Amino acid sequence: MGERWALLIVRELSHGVRRFGGIAANTGAPRDILTTRLRKLEATGIVRRELYSAHPPRYEYHLTEAGAELNDVLLTLMAWGDR
Predict the structure, then answer these.
(1) Are 50 and 58 in contact (CB under 8 A)?
(2) Which conformational region is residue 28 in: left (phi greater than 0), alpha (psi within -120 to 50 degrees), or beta?
(3) DSSP 3
(4) How many domains does the chain fold into?
(5) Distances (CA, A) of 59 to 5, 28, 55, 69, 73
(6) Which pTM does this prediction carry?
(7) Cβ–Cβ under 8 Å, residues 60 and 52
């Protein structure tokens, strides 16, 4: 989680951005890096994906309970930085 793109992904998901294109547009992450980070976040239980279109397969991304708890940590860090 100490990596820039992962933190930006969690931020976007916490703001309700669920689809790959929206996350890519809002973070500026290159598509290959974004794909890799989303897979790692899914593998570690921070993010889960849900199929929203079968043909072609398309997914939305959501924070898990652990991801939501991590967002609380990020908000605390932001408040600390603002002070």
Answers:
(1) no
(2) left
(3) S
(4) 1
(5) 19, 19, 11, 22, 26
(6) 0.87
(7) yes
Average pLDDT by stretches of 10, the chain with 83 residues? 85 96 96 96 96 94 94 87 91
Integer Cα distance of 69 and 83 in angstroms:
22
Q: How many residues does the chain have?
A: 83
- Domain at 69, CATH number: 1.10.10.10
Beta bridge partners of 51: 59
User: 20, exposed or middle or buried, with CB in 10 Å at 0-12, 13-18, 19+?
Assistant: middle
Amino acid at site 46:
I
Q: For residue 47, what are its two tokens?
A: 């993010």
